[in-house]
Specification:
Number of strands: 0
Radius of gyration: 14 Å
Distance between the termini: 41 Å
Strand content: under 5%
Structural class: mainly alpha
Number of helices: 3
Low-confidence stretches: none
Helix content: over 70%
Largest sheet: none
Shape: elongated
Length: 92
């Protein structure tokens, strides 16, 4: 793996864990399947999406360098937050 992919994965893992751990506290919601499942699902989806966004989508739209890295990590962290909403809708 190249250095930029490792940096992307590090940013995505840290950001996804923080967002899936702190967002329920901000909205005062309880994780329907537990905090560990929230963190695991959010981080797993974040990692998968960041790799797709960085390796496939960024070159397609012409993004290179740090801009592609930041876009891919930010998008993946946002997608981790969306997955928390999906988990809560599935439980209902």
């Amino acid at each position: 793996m190249s250095g930029s992919v490792l940096v992307l994965l590090l940013i995505t893992v840290v950001g996804s864990v923080l967002i899936t751990w702190l967002l329920p506290m901000a909205f005062k919601s309880k994780p329907p399947y537990g905090l560990a499942v929230d963190i695991a699902v959010g981080t797993g989806v974040g990692i998968a999406w960041s790799l797709v966004a960085y390796l496939v989508l960024s070159p397609l739209i012409g993004l290179k360098g740090w801009l592609a890295l930041v876009m891919s990590a930010g998008d993946a962290i946002g997608f981790a937050a969306v997955m928390m909403w999906v988990l809560r809708r599935i439980k209902r």
